[in-house]
C-alpha cells in the first residue's frame, strides 16, 4: 500500500516543518525531533515507508503490532526482554496509547493509527516528549485520512 505523502523529507514549499505541519507533505525527520522513522502496517507484516538507514525486521514489526493491539503477553515479555527496533535494543517504559522505550539517552516512540504504526527514533540531543508528540501527530493525521 502506498503512503499518500512523502514522510521522510521536507517539501520545497516547507523546508523546515514542525510537528504542527505534518499534514503538509513533510517529514518526521524534518521536524528536528526524530532522527529516523518508519510506518508499518497495523498487522506488523510490512513496512510502508522508512528512513534509508532504518530496517525493521519482520519479527520486530510483529512485536510492535502486538504491543499496540494491547496483547498483554507481548507487552509483559517486552518489558522483561526489551523492544528491538532496527536491531537496537530499547527498554520499554510505556505501553498505552503511545509506546515509548529508551536505550541510554536515545529513544523510540510508537503510535498506531487505524491501519498503520508510526515509529520515530530520537537521538540523545532530542527531547523524548517532542518525539512522542510528533509521532502521535502523524498517527492522528493518518487516522484523519483513513489510514
Automatic annotation (TrEMBL):
Sequence intervals crossing the membrane: none
One Pfam family hit: Profilin
SUPFAM superfamilies named among the record's database cross-references: Profilin (actin-binding protein)
Domain of life the protein comes from: Eukaryota
Gene Ontology MF term list: actin monomer binding
Presence of the UniProt keyword NADP in the record: no
Keywords associated with the record: Actin-binding, Cytoplasm, Cytoskeleton
Subcellular location: Cytoplasm, Cytoskeleton
Family: Belongs to the profilin family.
Protein name: Profilin
Amino acid at each position: 500500500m502506498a503512503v499518500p505523502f512523502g514522510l521522510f523529507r521536507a517539501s520545497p514549499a516547507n523546508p523546515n516543518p514542525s510537528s504542527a505541519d505534518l499534514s503538509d507533505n513533510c517529514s518526521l525527520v524534518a521536524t528536528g525531533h526524530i532522527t529516523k522513522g518508519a510506518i508499518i502496517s497495523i498487522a506488523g507484516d510490512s513496512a510502508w515507508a522508512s528512513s534509508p538507514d532504518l530496517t525493521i525486521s519482520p519479527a520486530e514489526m510483529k512485536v510492535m503490532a502486538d504491543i499496540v493491539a494491547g496483547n498483554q503477553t507481548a507487552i509483559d515479555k517486552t518489558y522483561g526482554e526489551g523492544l528491538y527496533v532496527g536491531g537496537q535494543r530499547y527498554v520499554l517504559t510505556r505501553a498505552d496509547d503511545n509506546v515509548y522505550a529508551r536505550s541510554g539517552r536515545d529513544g523510540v516512540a510508537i503510535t498506531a493509527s487505524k491501519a498503520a504504526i508510526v515509529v520515530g527514533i530520537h537521538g540523545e540531543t532530542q527531547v523524548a516528549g517532542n518525539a512522542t508528540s510528533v509521532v502521535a501527530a502523524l498517527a492522528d493525521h493518518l487516522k484523519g485520512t483513513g489510514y
